[in-house]
């Protein structure tokens, strides 16, 4: 009988020892990517970033187009006309009337025209507006990049935390499986109850189900990250194994909401609307332009391109230089109405700017509150993990000496797993709050650098 008790005691010590063994999974056999690398690929590959870069390039062409309005415009024309029937005119000389054909069967001409704007307020305003448009697209591209950075960072840490939870649940599964095998050996030798084995199998099945759910969650999170990175979904990736360190110092620095790209884009858009108003007002200004042309014409009864004066074809050149001044006097109020419409557009955008300022201020206040709560929650969850580890260790020791039932051992193991998952989720909540705060401070671009 004593020998049987000694054997049972050794087996229980084997169960307790099994709880102390955790196997590591090779989750990072593939090449790991850091957050900075993920952001870099997103900015290089994502369609939104590429389209924003194309808009900047397009703005350069708009500047060239506007500049062309201030440069000389030169064109050339050439033509050949055959008049099979020439209209006759009635001419009267000294009281006598006579019919005469005014024209020739063949007429050919070639000319070069020059047009140069000397003063046109619309051209000057358009050139300024084009330069401002380029600045607008640069800011808009920056805003697009910041949105990509936010999406990538959020998705990246989502994968990171899900993988941490998966490692925890895998370790718990491996530990519980070893315990199940030991208890099965006890049951086979008549040293433990079958109900203890059933309880362990139920626990193992529940952990296995949670493990599968986390495997799926990790895969879905990775797919989201790959989408934001702009890489094929079937690309195998692993996030860099790195601890998350809270940064309470983020709350200490001051913030200037005027640095937010959202406001800069709106203010630049307002500048464009002001230019649009000035361009409309320019229709009230006079315009001055220089016109000049030079041509060479031939006409006669024969084909002019191969005949000269001796064959009845006259070739002669001509030229003209003129100064055109156009002064608008009355347009029926159309221009004034257009100016008033542009003013309404400016006032409408002013409302958007004011509303955005209030919204950004609200986002900042909420971000500060959320990160403060997240820091408190991290500390609480961290202490809870420490406590759960102590309870598990004490319960295992009690079970080793027969002072605690198996159910308590399984419960403490489950509680420790839950505590670790809660801690990992608290870290995710913190990182999400941290990203929101960095965004609220207009410093998302700092995430590109380690």
TrEMBL record:
Pfam annotation, one family: OEP
Protein's name according to its UniProt entry: TolC family protein
Coiled-coil stretches noted in the UniProt entry, renumbered to this chain: 32-64, 339-391
Organism superkingdom: Bacteria
Signal peptide as annotated in the record: 1-29
UniProt organism field: Chryseobacterium oryzae
Keywords associated with the record: Cell outer membrane, Coiled coil, Membrane, Signal, Transmembrane, Transmembrane beta strand, Transport
Principal location listed in the UniProt entry: membrane
Matching Gene3D superfamilies: Outer membrane efflux proteins (OEP)
Family indicated by similarity: Belongs to the outer membrane factor (OMF) (TC 1.B.17) family.
Location in or out of the cell: Cell outer membrane
């Amino acid at each position: 009988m004593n020998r049987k008790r000694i054997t049972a005691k050794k087996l229980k010590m084997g169960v307790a020892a099994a709880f102390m063994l955790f196997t590591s999974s090779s989750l990072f056999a593939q090449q790991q990517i850091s957050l900075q690398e993920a952001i870099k690929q997103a900015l290089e590959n994502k369609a939104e970033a590429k389209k924003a870069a194309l808009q900047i390039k397009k703005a350069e062409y708009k500047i060239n187009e506007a500049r062309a309005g201030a440069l000389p415009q030169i064109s050339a024309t050439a033509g050949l006309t055959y008049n099979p029937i020439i209209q006759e005119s009635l001419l009267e000389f000294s009281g006598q009337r006579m019919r005469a054909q005014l024209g020739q069967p063949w007429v050919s001409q070639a000319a070069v025209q020059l047009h140069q704007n000397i003063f046109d307020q619309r051209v000057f305003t358009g050139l300024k507006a084009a330069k401002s448009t380029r600045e607008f697209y640069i800011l808009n591209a920056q805003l697009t990049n910041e949105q990509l950075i936010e999406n990538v960072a959020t998705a990246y840490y989502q994968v990171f935390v899900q993988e941490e939870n998966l490692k925890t649940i895998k370790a718990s599964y491996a530990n519980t499986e070893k315990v199940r095998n030991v208890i099965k050996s006890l049951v086979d030798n008549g040293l433990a109850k079958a109900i203890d084995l059933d309880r362990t199998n139920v626990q193992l099945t529940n952990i296995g189900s949670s493990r599968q759910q986390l495997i799926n969650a990790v895969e879905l999170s990775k797919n989201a990250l790959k989408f934001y990175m702009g890489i094929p979904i079937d690309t195998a990736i692993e996030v860099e194994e790195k601890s998350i360190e809270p940064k309470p110092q983020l709350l200490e620095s001051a913030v200037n909401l005027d640095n937010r790209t959202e406001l800069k884009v709106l203010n630049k858009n307002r500048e464009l609307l002001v230019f649009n108003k000035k361009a409309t007002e320019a229709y009230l200004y006079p315009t001055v332009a220089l016109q000049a042309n030079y041509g060479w014409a031939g006409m006669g009864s024969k084909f002019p391109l191969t005949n000269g004066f001796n064959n009845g074809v006259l070739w002669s050149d001509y030229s003209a230089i003129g100064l055109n001044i156009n002064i608008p006097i009355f347009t029926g109020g159309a221009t004034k109405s257009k100016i008033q419409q542009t003013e309404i557009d400016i006032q409408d955008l002013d409302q958007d700017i004011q509303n955005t300022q209030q919204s950004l201020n609200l986002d900042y206040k909420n971000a500060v509150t959320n990160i403060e709560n997240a820091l408190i929650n991290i500390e609480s969850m961290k202490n809870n993990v420490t406590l759960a580890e102590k309870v598990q260790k004490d319960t295992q020791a009690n079970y080793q000496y027969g002072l605690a039932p198996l159910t308590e051992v399984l419960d403490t193991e489950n509680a420790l797993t839950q505590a670790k998952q809660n801690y990992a989720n608290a870290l995710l909540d913190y990182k999400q709050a941290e990203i929101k705060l960095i965004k609220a401070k207009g410093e998302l671009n700092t995430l590109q650098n380690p």
